[in-house]
Design goal:
By secondary structure, this protein is mostly helical. It contains 8 helices and 4 strands; from the N terminus they run βαβαββαααααα. One of its GO terms (biological process) is glutathione metabolic process.
Length: about 200
């Protein structure tokens, strides 16, 4: 898998999904000097929107985060919906996650505007608090863990929202549950440490 080194980029969503599924992978952080070569390889497979992350399986590239996660869910037979209606619901929420990301991904990660939480984050937290309260269980579909749960988790991290959940019991329960999933404990800890180092270096 190829991605960039920044909390605002999307590779960690795929990394978490692959880790949860117990699939071995290598996460290659693409440098600017390496990107041109990767771009050529993508275009050779008729992928002309050459953004990362991209997943490579047996020489075949899969681009765009959400479509790739959806592809993996269907291939694995888990992390998706059990009915067409559940799939549509998950797709709608994945689309909402993309809307959320657009609101913060171009901001300075080290210096969000003072009113960002009230103007942006609070609204999305309210929506997802209600969403996570629909079913019994900590995840969007209740006890069933899905690819959209990973997207929501990463937005809580990337939009610095994890510390704003005291009045959001359903989201707080979700956060606890996902960070305690046996296959994800080490990856979550590694990513948190990695991001702390990233911010520390950026502030220097």
């Amino acid at each position: 898998m190829y991605g960039l080194y920044s909390s605002c980029h999307l590779g960690e969503n795929l990394a978490l999904m692959l880790t949860e599924a117990g699939l071995p992978f290598e996460y290659i952080r693409v440098k600017s000097t390496e990107y041109k070569e990767l771009k050529v390889r993508l275009e050779e497979q008729n992928i002309f929107s050459t953004t990362v992350p991209v997943l490579e399986i047996d020489g075949k590239f899969f681009s765009k985060t959400v479509p790739t996660m959806r592809y993996l869910a269907r291939k694995l037979g888990k992390y998706g919906g059990s009915t067409d209606e559940e799939w549509q619901h998950l797709d709608a929420l994945a689309d909402l996650c993309n809307d959320w990301r657009e609101k913060y991904c171009r901001l300075d990660e080290l210096n969000f505007p003072e009113d960002h939480f009230e103007k942006v984050t609070a609204g999305y937290l309210s929506i997802f608090e209600k969403t996570y309260g629909v079913h019994e269980g900590p995840y969007i579909l209740g006890e069933e863990f899905t690819f959209v749960d990973i997207l929501v988790y990463r937005h809580l991290c990337d939009d610095h929202a994890k510390t704003h959940l005291d009045d959001k019991p359903h989201l707080k329960a979700f956060l606890t549950a996902i960070e305690k999933r046996p296959n994800l404990v080490e990856r979550v800890a590694f990513t948190n440490d990695e991001m702390e180092q990233f911010f520390a270096q950026a502030k220097q």
